[in-house]
Amino acid sequence: RSGFIAIIGRPNVGKSTFMNHVLGQKIAIMSDKPQTTRNKIQGVFTKENAQFVFIDTPGIHKPKHKLGDFMVQSSINTLNEVDLVMFMVNAKEGFGKGDQFIIDKLQNVKQPIFLVINKIDEVHPDELLPLISFYKEKLNFKEIVPISALNGNNVNHLLEVMESYL
Ligand code: GDP
Ligand code: MG
């Protein structure tokens, strides 16, 4: 099994940290400047029966200039071409306008969308279920998986669930 996985989420939710954890090296940090690197292959992760090609898709945020609309659309087009979309949010910080902007754009995406709730090491376990219920109302996510990209908690489980979609 192999497939392309697009990673989206507002800045600082932990996308690069996740990539680094999975790929085992600091190759995900290429540019944190918004809208400079679009749809870049971040790395290929191979396990026994599966190969994951991760694509960073940083263009999905409210455009600051005229070219921005085009870039947002270009990123959305990418999402419709991958096998799986991984939308990462921050468990600690709570839901923000940036998250809502992305969710609005995701309404038109046909591919399976995973919600990955990152930084669970920073919240009390009791806060997790309400958070999951909250996000279930927002979009029809195929899967909702809480992880800690920093300490690796539940990351292998996430990869296994992903594998079942490839
Ligand atoms: P990106 O902008 O989405 O690529 O986010 P980064 O991967 O650069 O992470 C932003 C900050 O959040 C960094 O300081 C990371 O160390 C921190 N971070 C990422 N994942 C986790 C996590 O699971 N737990 C905690 N506590 N911090 C995290
Ligand atoms: Mg990053």
TrEMBL record:
Compartment(s) where it occurs, according to its Swiss-Prot or TrEMBL record: Cytoplasm; Cell membrane
Q: Where is this region: G2?
A: 35-39
Region (G1) residue spans:
9-16
Q: Which controlled-vocabulary keywords does the entry list?
A: Cell membrane, Cytoplasm, GTP-binding, Membrane, Nucleotide-binding, Ribosome biogenesis, RNA-binding, rRNA-binding
Give the way it sits in the membrane: Peripheral membrane protein
Kindly indicate whether the keyword RNA-binding belongs to this entry: yes
Q: Which residues hold GTP? A: 9-16, 56-60, 118-121
Positions of the Era-type G domain: 1-166
Q: Does the keyword Cytoplasm apply?
A: yes
Q: What is its main location?
A: cytoplasm
Molecular function terms from GO: GTP binding; GTPase activity; ribosomal small subunit binding; small ribosomal subunit rRNA binding
How this chain assembles, per its entry, is: Monomer.
The entry sums up its family as follows: Belongs to the TRAFAC class TrmE-Era-EngA-EngB-Septin-like GTPase superfamily. Era GTPase family.
Protein task: An essential GTPase that binds both GDP and GTP, with rapid nucleotide exchange. Plays a role in 16S rRNA processing and 30S ribosomal subunit biogenesis and possibly also in cell cycle regulation and energy metabolism.
- Protein name (Swiss-Prot/TrEMBL): GTPase Era
Question: In which organism is this protein found?
Answer: Piscibacillus halophilus
Q: Upper lineage ranks?
A: Bacteria, Bacillati, Bacillota, Bacilli, Bacillales
